[in-house]
Amino acid sequence: MTDRYAVIGNPISQSKSPILHTAFARQFGHELQYDKLLATHEDFAQTVQRFIDEGGKGMNVTAPFKLAALEFADTLSDRARAAQAINTLKFSAEGVHGDNTDGVGLVSDIRDRLGVALENRRILIIGAGGAARGILLPLLEARPAHLLLVNRTESKAHELVEASGASRQIVAAGPLSAVEEGAFDVIINATSASLSDAHLPLERGVFAPDALAYDLVYGRGDTAFMSDARRLGAAHVADGLGMLVGQAAESYRLWFGRRPDVEPVMAMLR
Ligand code: NDP
């Protein structure tokens, strides 16, 4: 019987997950049916349960259900617990396991695909929403020299950094204006500002020589952040498509024990 997988969200029509997982399955000759499931907050749990009852093996979870999925999981990976959000569910005889592959998808995209080192580098994260929460622990595990997390609502930046439990020598929080505190090697825009073409208060001094500017937003061409970064001297500029494909590849690995090759899938999507 063909294994069934799905992505659940609202809205869901825009999701690229079926295209990604079908392409991954083709690399290994796996038989896979991958559907899109639309749910509401009221019927989220029933929709997931029905999918399991019908033989579903795994599910990707997207906005706005990444928190709701926490309630549904019997066990959590460390990174899902740290992120307090789930983007991948695995259903088996042992129960429902929840994971969060967003951060490791980003780290593998930066390190493996773009070839930019994170160890001993200075990292700046702008934003303290769900995406920032998902990437903070995996970025800290990449052993940067220093990580500064800034946010428009400063208190949220402090809450995230406190919750990470990392040493104050490594990680710090501040308001958006704290981006002026010296040069960074990797600057990650984890805000949704690019969705409304809003500009962030970036200065030339933020970008160290050879800096990477990475916008988590994808599918919008050059964003305001990406063009500002280029103008202000960032040596490398990327959007979040590689993170999207990377997180999907890690979900696939969780389900099937094999990590697909992301390059041909990136090329297909571009
Ligand atoms: P949230 O709504 O949880 O958080 C939004 C964040 O953006 C907050 O920190 C908010 O600040 C900040 N923000 C919004 N507008 C502005 C602005 N004009 N200036 C400064 N800061 C602003 O969103 P998510 O964290 O879930 O997602 C953030 C982005 O990441 C989205 O655009 C999403 O598309 C992208 N993403 C990409 C993924 C990928 O695979 N590539 C995966 C997940 C997300 P404040 O707290 O002050 O409101």
Automatic annotation (TrEMBL):
The species this protein was found in: Castellaniella hirudinis
One annotated GO molecular function is:
shikimate 3-dehydrogenase (NADP+) activity
Q: Which residues form the active site?
A: K66
Q: Where is the SDH C-terminal domain?
A: 240-267
Q: Which residues form the Quinate/shikimate 5-dehydrogenase/glutamyl-tRNA reductase domain?
A: 117-194
This chain belongs to the protein called: Shikimate dehydrogenase (NADP(+))
Name the chemical reaction catalysed here: shikimate + NADP(+) = 3-dehydroshikimate + NADPH + H(+)
- Keywords for this entry? Amino-acid biosynthesis, Aromatic amino acid biosynthesis, NADP, Oxidoreductase
Keyword Nucleotide-binding on this protein?
no
Assembly: Homodimer.
Q: Which Gene3D superfamilies match?
A: Leucine Dehydrogenase, chain A, domain 1, NAD(P)-binding Rossmann-like Domain
Q: In which pathway does it act?
A: Metabolic intermediate biosynthesis; chorismate biosynthesis; chorismate from D-erythrose 4-phosphate and phosphoenolpyruvate: step 4/7
**Enzyme Commission number, as recorded:** 1.1.1.25
Domain of life of the native organism: Bacteria
Primary role: Involved in the biosynthesis of the chorismate, which leads to the biosynthesis of aromatic amino acids. Catalyzes the reversible NADPH linked reduction of 3-dehydroshikimate (DHSA) to yield shikimate (SA).
Q: What InterPro entries does this protein map onto?
A: Aminoacid_DH-like_N_sf, NAD(P)-bd_dom_sf, SDH_C, Shikimate_DH, Shikimate_DH-bd_N, Shikimate_DH_fam, Shikm_DH/Glu-tRNA_Rdtase
Similarity-based family:
Belongs to the shikimate dehydrogenase family.
Presence of the UniProt keyword S-adenosyl-L-methionine in the record: no
Stretches assigned to the Shikimate dehydrogenase substrate binding N-terminal domain: 7-89
Positions binding shikimate in this chain are S15, K16, S17, T62, N87, D102, Y218, Q247
